[in-house]
Write a structure and sequence with these properties.
The protein is α/β, with parallel strands linked by helices. It has two domains: 28-108, no CATH class; 124-323, 2-enoyl-CoA Hydratase, Chain A, domain 1 (Alpha-Beta Complex), CATH 3.90.226.10. The protein has ten helices and eleven strands. It has a six-stranded mixed sheet, sandwiched between helices. Strands 1, 5, 6, 9 and 10 form a five-stranded antiparallel sheet that branches.
């Protein structure tokens, strides 16, 4: 019996002349280029179509409106600048300023607004000035006093640089009176120095287009500070990220005592987005919840020991010295 083995016919690779190869490469390049141009044209058409009403209104008002003295006054009122006839250049910023002003008025949200370049520079200077007031020192035998004027990367770095000296004491008084808050990331980092690894610091909820988004924030790294007693001074101006720090320590540690007044009660967070020409928009974008999912916005954090903020430090010293054996 004969067995025939069939072998596939190997296809011969076609060879092209140099001119033919160049022509084929050019054809491929032409097809790809035309496809990209088509995508860009469609994208541009979509952008114009979606924003047609606004673009027409912007062009009509900024280029053709005849009562320029009215526009000058409005631009100066809301942006603090003289547009010098360049209404189109600043029109987007002008619209953002108007919309955010209406949000503040209608929605009782003082945290959504447009930063002009001057306002943004002043804001950053104020934060830096506040942060420079951070301090710590031995206020009594075995007790360290830590002043946290705001919650910012600068203050976070200050505490981190001095953490070994601060940790040499038995007890600590953390002064958050008048602290307006600041950045949540810095609050979580500072609180993390006091908390066990992976302890819940807070929850953040944001509204995306079609579904809510919840993020759990946990302490990272190992617990660095292990004090016998932690006393926190607070008042009616202690707010936002400072309140996050208070509730995180209260929820995870059993040696925390707060003295003073009920805090401000700000449990919403903002996103600061830089814009062109030095402008920036600050928009309320998240709600902040305590580790047990409580929502303290408009409520605040009540103190364990109610006391006048003006002499709360003396009360804290009496409390700590009385707590010693």
């Amino acid at each position: 019996m004969r067995i025939f083995k069939w072998r596939g016919i190997k296809r011969q690779k076609r060879s092209f002349s140099a001119i033919e190869s160049l022509r084929r490469k050019f054809l491929r390049f032409k097809i790809i280029s035309l496809s990209l141009i088509g995508v860009l044209v469609i994208s541009l058409f979509t952008i114009v179509f979606v924003n047609y009403d606004y673009l027409i209104f912007k062009t009509l008002i900024s280029r053709h409106y005849i009562h320029t003295e009215t526009l000058d006054a409005m631009f100066y009122e809301h942006l603090g600048i003289d547009p010098e006839g360049r209404y189109s250049r600043y029109f987007d910023n002008f619209v953002i300023a108007l919309v955010t002003a209406e949000i503040r008025s209608t929605g009782n949200d003082p945290y959504t607004f447009l930063f002009t370049p001057q306002q943004r520079a002043a804001h950053e200077e104020r934060i830096a000035q506040e942060a420079s007031e951070a301090d710590f020192f031995e206020i009594a035998s075995g007790i360290v006093y830590l002043k946290i004027p705001n919650i910012s990367p600068s203050v976070e770095n200050f505490i981190h640089r001095n953490r070994r000296e601060i940790a040499n004491f038995d007890s600590i008084i953390i002064d958050l009176r008048g602290n307006p808050g600041g950045e949540l990331a810095s609050s979580q980092a500072i609180a993390g120095l006091f908390l066990p690894r992976r302890a819940v610091v807070n929850f953040e909820q944001a509204r995306w287009d079609f579904w809510p988004f919840t993020r759990e924030r946990r302490a990272s790294g190992s617990q660095f500070f292990e004090f016998e007693n932690i006393v926190i001074l607070q008042d009616g101006w202690t707010a936002s990220a400072a309140e996050v720090m208070i509730t995180a320590l209260q929820a995870n540690l059993d040696n925390v005592t707060t003295i003073g007044e009920t805090t401000f009660g700000k449990a919403v967070g903002q996103v600061l987005i830089p814009l062109r020409r030095g402008f920036a928009v600050n928009s309320t974008a998240i709600t902040i919840h305590t580790p047990d999912m409580s929502y303290i916005h408009g409520v605040g954090v009540a103190p364990d020991i109610a006391h006048s903020p003006s002499d709360a430090l003396e009360a804290a010293l009496d409390f700590l010295q009385g707590a010693r054996p």
